[in-house]
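To: structure subgroup
Subject: Chain for Friday's discussion

All,

I'm putting the inputs and outputs inline so they're searchable in the archive.
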Amino acid sequence: MTNIIEIDSDGHVHGGTEFERELEQLINRHSEENQSNTPDFILAIYLRGCLNAFNHATGDEIASMACRGRATRNRSGSRPDD
């Protein structure tokens, strides 16, 4: 799935998915783009690509691990029985 991104003469970005636009806003709200000086929309597209690659690489493995209770984590990142 390819989305066309357009930048108008005022520098405003148009296009992308709803997820990418919301991610862009989140990145901007927390000023996460400042260290790399990379536009928010570029980071959002990059992170979307990372998620797509992860999903492709793991396929159904993560879902089957969750069903077996091996992928369950709490908010701190540790397993509930740790």
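Points worth raising on Friday:
The CA atoms of residues 17 and 32 lie 20 Å apart.
Strands lie at 5-7, 13-15.

D.
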